[in-house]
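Table S7 (text form). Paired inputs.
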Amino acid sequence: MGITGTDVTKNVADMILADDNFATIVSAVEEGRRIYDNIRKSIQFLLSSNLSEVISIFFATMLGFTILKPVHILFINLITDSLPALALGIEKAEADIMKRKPRDPKEGIFSGGVGFSVFYQGVMVSILTLAAYFIGENFQH
């Protein structure tokens, strides 16, 4: 307990309740789960977005054309990556967040299909980007 506990017990405790109310534990667990979920969503979004950039630029270079100029990459990284990632970071908790079982602390951030989703989304966005480029080139000429 943060108010009534002694300094010795506070130093060895894993958790200190600042308001001496056990209901605070439930709120803290819910907030921790929300933050963890939002971090995973932001990481998934940023990695899949950047992977699609890398794949698109790689294949465009291999095929002998430039798909994104440096100013385009800068715009994508500064504006279209950061603002949605920030929005994902402050998203509200899902309705069933407290009904889930506790996650394994040894579980990685890419577990539960996040790694596959990053790869899949990155490849799909790259395919769509290259397709849009080729369609635009055909209509231009």
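Next pair, protein 2 of 2.
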Amino acid sequence: MIKNVILILPFIVLLACQKNSFKMTTTPNPIPVVKPEDEISYLAIGDSYTIGEAVPLESSFPYQLVKELQKTDMQLSKPHIIAKTGWTTSELQEGINHANLRQKFSMVTLLIGVNNQYRGESKEKYRKEFKELLQAAITFADGNKAHVFVVSIPDWGLTPYGMGSGRETLAVSADIDAFNAINKQESLAEGISYTDITAASRLVVSDPELVAADGLHPSSKMYLDWVVQLAPVVIKKIK
């Protein structure tokens, strides 16, 4: 009996080894992990329209843009934002200098100028400082102009706040168009993508849901409209 047990043991050991070997060969491959260096980094610079005044930060157009791009399997980190309500071009320049960013980004968006128009600053000053901000955006994009995206200035004059401001709405619209003519001209001269959301911003006269609760700034819905226009452009240039 003992002899038979001794003879059987080697077979049991052999079967156990084979079983363990089978388990090892059928272990599934680990799920690929996206490394930080594979992520698309995003810098958004501007004013209240970039920071998303009067809506949750996640509803601002940079955050909604990231969410939209992620639907295409693009791996984006959350946007880094340099923007503040009320900033003009010169104040944005100061904000950038104060931020002292050394990092380069995979993509940069720039939307600035409404407060230059609102305060009655000269268009010559705006042109000069906008050109400087374009160069700053290009530098942040590590010199890649194809990864810089300019967004036009929306028309605040047709919002409830604008209509009650005492300013003539047609004059505001004409002035906004003049400032946008400058930023478009300078963007295209540099070979930089330009997305015109101004016409869409004027739909507030027929759709009150496009305006935030403060009666002035865009709602989440309007920001999404901007994203729908901007996302295909970004995908074409980045992906």
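The beta strands are 42-46, 80-83, 107-111, 148-151, 193-195.
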